Amino acid sequence: MTSFEIFESTILTNGLTWPTVPLIWKKCIKNMNKTFLYAMVLVVALVSGITARAGAGVVVQPIDDASFSKLLSSDDNRMVLSFMAAWCGPCIDELPTLNKLHKRYKDKHLQIVGISIDLEGPGAMQPIVQKLKIDFPIYWRGEKAVERFKLNAIPMLLFVRQGRMIERLHGNRSEKFLDQKIREFLK
User: Which site in 12, 98, 99, 171 is 20 to 30 Å from 109, CA atoms measured?
Assistant: First the structure.
């Protein structure tokens, strides 16, 4: 398999599960020089129409272990964690739906929080967040999130109440389905 084929299968293939990505990614890096790798990421981003816009409100920020634990353990919190990556087509497709649900339920004490697992850091997800005008917070946790939550596929939604995981949903779901799940979760 050529370096480009490894890269293409990693970045462009939907439905790729998380455990295989780091292995393929490491092969890519070994087989390519960094300049070529960055150029390929840029080409994929441009072809996909992912462009940065000035003035976007949400900035993807790294979050440390202590802050992340505090976010999850609030006594009165009801939260939906959305695990995502910039290379995951279904994750990106789900973001507008999650944004609508965030707007609909934020005044009903539901937090929707995105967690980027991109190996490249918070900058990988930022152009997508800007393009889609996402209003809910998105943090970068990288591999730490994969390990802590034993992620084996994305997109994945975790429903968390008072620091305890209530439900785990794999895959991109319809707005109608997620709306029903959220209404049940808020009861």
Answer: 171
